Every structure is written in structure tokens, then in C-alpha cells.
Amino acid sequence: MSNQKYTLQSNEAVIMKTENVRRDDGFKNYVYELILTNKNLILVKKGNWRGKVLDVFYFPISSIRSYEGKASIILSKEKFSPKMEIHFMTGEEAITFEKRKEAEKWVENINNLLSGEEIESGSNDNNIIPGTGLVAETLKGTIDTFKGIFNGESPSAAKTVKKEKTVKKCTSCGASNSGISGRIVRCEYCGSEQLL
To answer: Does the predicted model carry a pTM greater than 0.90?
Structure first.
């Protein structure tokens, strides 16, 4: 699907972005911005002059082929650049990166998204403020403590929420689905998405 405007759905969040990637589409003089959200892989086609947006392509995460929770992605080299080939239900897309580590991070995050594992945000360490994870966990703990106090619990009795793996039957086909509790997973058998 392609559009001229890049917009997110109301239940969609950006996980990571990388600029200056190339799409294996026969037009070598266009650069793309690659965006991973919890719902889509988005390619924004830009012109070389002032980076004007020429087109936007959306590829649903649910259409990525997978086996045993791993995405069907091949990481190879094209000339001297790392190339990520993603296999969708309807075809494949090949994207060339400037650095191999960056391509590996994309493969890791796509696999984590499909399996329900924890995902690191940001395309590289330069975009992440050091210590934000620790600050977020501390704030969450503080908020949970206040919630407990306002609900009549003592501070020591305030509960912390653990991310636990769980197994739940698919509501569509009855197959077993596993992942982290509270996350949305896609059934390997029928493809329906559901909350664990």
C-alpha cells in the first residue's frame, strides 16, 4: 500500500527509525527512511533534493512470514553494504543499510516484535538519552507505590508488576500462543492477533 502522507494509526507507536536506507527497487538514486512500528514496517521514499517525501509504503507486521516465532529475514551483503531481505506473505522487500550492526538491530527488533519479547527503542545509541530506562523504571515503581498507598496498602505492601511469560489458547483456532503477559501476539496458525 502506498500513500503520499505518512500517518500512524491511533493504536500505533514508533519503535525505531533509520534514515538513508536503499530499497531494492531498481531506482538507486532515491533514499528511504525506514520506520518500525508495533503495526507496520514503513518505507518513506524521499527525493535527493531537500528530502521531499515522494511516496510512503506500509507493510503490516502481521504479513511477515515467520517460523517458530522468528521472522523470515535474510541478512546478506550487496557489494559492501548489509542487505536485509524480508519475506512477506505477498512477496519480499530488500533494504540496504550503511552499517551491519544497524541491520542486525532491525532484524532483532522485528523478531522481538513478532515473538512478544522486550524491544529496545531507537535505531542507534546516539538517539537514546543514557539512563532513560532506569529513570522510567524508577518512576513506574514510585507511581505503583503511590497507587498502593491510596488504595489503603502500606508502602511495603505495594506490588510491583513483573513481565512474565504466559501461554494462552487462541480464541480463533484454539492453538497455544506464548509470550509476555499483557502483550499482543499473533497466532502462528491462523494469524489472528490477541492479548496475552
So the answer is: no
